[in-house]
């Protein structure tokens, strides 16, 4: 048997300076849905996430908490690991940048870049934003409201840094990067972000400071322990550490590198789409296949921030609305790639309309009829008519459509396409009126109920990556065996077996009744 095609995808690794909020949960959720979909589609998946634990920002937070950095990162990293349990992530590995496997990988990457002549020792004199862990030139900063300097782009405070530093010859990589984007049109997405990246690179690149002499909390530079590596070089390298680098002959590395997808937020695209491929090319390592930058959530119209006190804690919304509904909402509410607003009203609307009224009700009314009128077993269908074929055809076409949508990270489109079939199935039930057929033509009723049950099988298999628990319950109610819940089992060969006894139907998507003050 041919080996299953590998699919390696990663989330950004999260700074352990704070507790996770819904923005962090979102990036990983998108990856989780893709990972689950790829597994259902027979791919051999490596899904990596983890925590970014070095650098000035984390060191500062540790000091503010009155803790040693290691003790602090051990504690905060656990909160991100625990988030995985709350959000139902199916990651295969969790990497921490304070692990030995990562130190080894970073130091080796540095050595290779240095051996190839792309690193030199110089002196950095310029601005540094601790919040972004990024260097800024004089032309990128402006006077803030209190006179202190801030970045012109995002208003982050900056401080003046002047110290010896190693530099990466990024300036020499302009042409190679432009050629890389040109030859690999899918390497940076969405299109608008790709254009931003290309014009940034086309505008000329400065060499990049890649070490800090004044910061001890980091990975020592090989051969010069007075310096620690710049936290972004350290952090980006997690993606190859997780694939077994520097053991490039290992099965792990040979199977999974280059990564198929790095999913990131729009704020960190430049690091991933410019610096990272340049570092890798300089080390003689193949760059990742694709980087996708998604948008940002605001909360009831406002930027989400700790100081505004409006950061949404994933634990709270999962406790309130349930995990499946939260997962569905986050990926359905916005076109993936765009910014959007989180509101309680919107989530309740989606729960009651899309989930309870449309999807849940379809399953409930059909399964209840099967239970009452077909001896609680899947009915034997008669010959299919044009109307039945139309519905079954639409369901049968869905796997390829969803595969194409998710292949370009269009999560919302995948859900829209799935819900088109939900809508079609509801209209079909209304038109066929099996409750009328029950008396007039029971054989035809059996065919209609079977056609909808078979449509539900397709829907439930395809909604598994988004809503694993609810979809699993729906598949239980349809009597679908666990091993038959894959994309390969969809299509006529895998059709539901008439005569299969079904359990008593239970509502899967309850309506949400808001008993708290209006929000
Ligand atoms: N540590 C770096 C990433 C290093 S990857 C080699 C970092 N960490 S972060 O914790 O600040 O952010 C992690 C991710 O969360 C980013 O992709 C960021 O875009 C995302 N989000 C943070 N706030 C967000 C929203 N309000 N909305 C959506 N995503 C947001 O950056």
Can you describe this structure?
This protein is α/β, with parallel strands linked by helices and 519 residues long. The protein is 48% helix and 16% strand. Strands 1, 2, 3, 4, 10, 15 and 16 form a seven-stranded parallel sheet that branches. It has a four-stranded antiparallel sheet with strand order 6-5-9-11. It has a three-stranded antiparallel sheet with strand order 12-14-13. Strand 17 and strand 18 form a beta hairpin. Helix 14 (386-407) runs antiparallel to helix 15 (411-432). The chain is elongated and about 90 Å long. The N and C termini lie far apart (56 Å). 5'-O-[(L-methionyl)-sulphamoyl]adenosine (MSP) binds at residues 12-15, 23-24, 26-27, 52, 235-236, 238, 264-265, 267-268, 296-297, 304.
What is the overall silhouette?
elongated
Q: Could you name the ranges where pLDDT drops below 50 across 5 or more consecutive residues?
A: none
Computed Rg: 26 Å
The portion of residues assigned to helices is 40-55%
User: Whole-Å distance between the termini?
Assistant: 56 Å
User: What value does the average pLDDT take?
Assistant: 95
Strand runs, count: 19
Name every ligand kind in the structure.
5'-O-[(L-methionyl)-sulphamoyl]adenosine
Q: Describe the biggest sheet? A: 7 strands, parallel
Question: How many helix segments?
Answer: 18
Indicate the structural class.
Answer: alpha/beta
Beta strand %:
15-25%
